[in-house]
Amino acid sequence: MKIGLQIPSFTWPGGAKEIAPTLAKVARTADEGGFDLIRVMDHFFQINSLGPPEQEMLEAYTTLGYLAANTSRARLITVVTGVVYRYPGVLAKTVTTLDVLSGGRGMLGIGAGWNEYEARSLGIPFQPVPERFDWLEDALRVCLRMWKGDESRLEGKKFVFERPLNSPQSLTRPHPRIMIGGMGEQKTLRLVAKYADACNLFPAPDVARKLDVLKKHCEREKRNYDDIEKTVMYRFDVGEHGENVGKLVEQLRGLARTGFTTAIGGVKDVWKIKPLEIMAREVIPAVAAF
Predict the structure, then answer these.
(1) Among 64, 66, 222, 272, which residue has the least CB neighbours within 10 Å?
(2) d(CA 82, CA 20)
(3) Longest pairwise C-alpha distance within the chain
């Protein structure tokens, strides 16, 4: 099993002037410590489950560009891009730019979006669910078209792309890996089977059934289920002195047995750095063989 770091909060000691140096130290420690990927949320306000909207939140792709300059090996991704926040062709260019400037470490994390309050607060149109899924499929199609180098006209469900040119081309071949986030059985997991290289699920009680549903979609799409990276959201709390490591490793073993290959989540008190060092020293090597 691989371990990824999510950075879902920037409310750290020192206020705004300390965000950049703290983030750089967190990223370098994770990168050097063996975290497989580093991800940020694509939100403009803090989400309710983590804090009030007034808490500090950075724009995702600017942040990933900063992380690219402060790391050398970890993959970089949003989990996940709210599709309605960026026009599909612009998103393809954005992820291509991240991939080129990071030396081939960019990924596209994407989903239909859910935070209507955040969108409407910033004047972003927020369509009903069916329209957002049409937008999502158009985005997936044009990204793959642009990364393939096919500039021919593409007429999608919601958009028409007259000449989807992409220059420079992504360094990752055949294209940056695509992760689709979400648990929906009829739409989201079908799109994973059809277009994506990875899924991202929550460790809910019915998560094993969700993987079975994905497998059935793969059969219908004639897709090899084993080729899809199964990632799960998690929260890592190693304890102040590492006292929770054993319990954490066993929990991750259970997720691996369920079928997950990567666990990604926030590390409690990440700004203190020591929890990241404990993860690198005691957790990542212990789960590598799962």
Answers:
(1) 222
(2) 24
(3) 58
**How far apart (Å, rounded) are the C-alpha atoms in residues 35 and 14?**
26
- For residue 174, whether the previous peptide bond is cis, meaning omega lies within 30 degrees of 0, is yes
Query: How many other β-carbons are positioned within 10 Å of the β-carbon of residue 155?
Result: 10
**Average pLDDT of the residues of the chain:** 97
Q: Is the CA virtual torsion 91, 93, 97, 103 positive or negative?
A: positive
How many CB atoms sit inside 10 A of residue 171's CB? 15
Give me the phi and psi of 125, to 5 degrees please.
-60, 135
**Cβ neighbourhood burial of 173 (10 Å; 0-12, 13-18, 19+):** exposed
**Comparing C-alpha atoms, which of 193, 186, 195 is closest to residue 143?**
195
Confidence band, pLDDT 50/70/90 cuts, at residue 91: very high
Mean pLDDT of 145-170: 98
Say if residues 137 and 157 touch (Cβ distance below 8 Å).
yes
pLDDT tens figures, 12-26: 999 999 999 999 999
**What number is the average pLDDT over the span 155-169?**
98
- Work out the average pLDDT over 121-131: 97
Instruction: Dump the DSSP string for 130-184.
Output: HHHHHHHHHHHHHHHHHHHT--S-EE-SS-EES----SSPPSSSS---EEEE---
Q: How confident is the model at residue 234, as a pLDDT? A: 95
Query: What's the predicted TM-score (pTM) here?
Result: 0.96
- Residue 281 three-state SS: helix
Output the CA torsion 235→236→237→240 (10° steps).
-140
Amino acid at 16: A
